[in-house]
Amino acid sequence: MSEIAKQQPAQLVALDLDETLLQSDETISPREIAAARECHRRGIHVVLASARPLRSVAAYVAQLEIDGYCVALNGTVIAKAPDVEIVHTAGIATELAREIIAACRDIEHDNLFIETPLDYAVDHIDSDVELYIRMTGQRPLYTGDLRQWELKDVCKINLRVEGPPYQAAEQLKKWFGDRIHIVTWEGPWSWIEVLAGGTSKASALQWLSDRLGIERQRTLAVGDQLNDIEMLKWAGTGIAMGNAHPEVMAVADWVTASNDEDGCAIALERFVLQRSESR
């Protein structure tokens, strides 16, 4: 990353969704909408980049009433939105997916969940899957022993574990090395996301920037969680939310206000729309 003062005007801004652009009630405030639309009106590419499934991300693009590109499933899918036209995927090869699914049998877990660009399959229906159904309006394409499912176009393999996810994540890393990339989410029920090696929001944005002919130095990214670290480090200017994880703040060029205080809009106004008084 370069010093903020030396940055050229951004041509692409990448915005995380949950706890970044979205407030705690999962809505987008009027100020956030106005800032994103003004960027778009000026010809700046506004890219929503999320771990959420593609249709969910595209729905928020539609709410902003802009068009362009979005990144879903933690960088494994890029699509034109809001039309949901997939232009790039970075999935897990079928044979590797089979190896990972088999290895997960040796890790104590509560559910196994596979996501493809537009669908998903689960070992069984539980409260998390019901939440996913409500979020996407989709029921799983397949429910049952995932070893028996056609493992085609796999983007993410999600493992739900009880308690901290780190020991299981380290075991997967030991088994598969750089063939995989792991994202962890810690809570009462923790998740381990397994992606293809080298895949992240940053790799997706690099692909998209190359497609659009935009230099990395002319990009800005805003995020809050550990899966945003690569993206903030990659971008010409990396902005952490005021509610961000401490490790995210540590790699950021600047820390804005929280998601419930229009922090994303403040960053866009200050560094993209050049409203120096914004805070």
Major sheet, described briefly?
8 strands, mixed
- Straight-line N-to-C gap: 23 Å
Regarding quaternary structure, what we see is single chain
Percent of sequence in beta strands: 15-25%
Look at the structure and give the mean pLDDT.
93
Helix content: 25-40%
Q: If helices are DSSP runs of H or I spanning 4 or more residues, what is the number of helices? A: 10
Number of separate strands: 14
Short overview:
The chain is of the alpha/beta class. The chain contains ten helices and 14 strands.
SSE map:
Blueprint: E1 12-15, H1 17-21, H2 30-41, E2 45-49, H3 54-64, E3 68-72, E4 77-81, E5 85-89, H4 94-104, E6 111-115, E7 120-122, H5 127-136, E8 142-143, E9 156-162, H6 166-176, E10 180-185, E11 189-196, H7 201-212, E12 219-223, H8 229-234, E13 237-240, H9 246-251, E14 254-255, H10 263-271
Parallel strand pairs: 1-2, 1-12, 2-3, 7-8, 12-13, 13-14
Antiparallel strand pairs: 3-4, 4-5, 6-7, 6-9, 9-11, 10-11
What does this structure look like?
With 279 residues, this protein is α/β, with parallel strands linked by helices. The strands form two sheets. Strands 5-4-3-2-1-12-13-14 form an eight-stranded mixed β-sheet, sandwiched between helices. The protein has ten helices and 14 strands. Strand 13, helix 9 (246-251) and strand 14 (254-255) form a beta-alpha-beta unit. The radius of gyration is 18 Å and the shape is globular. It is 33% helix and 24% strand. The model has no long low-confidence stretch (mean pLDDT 93).
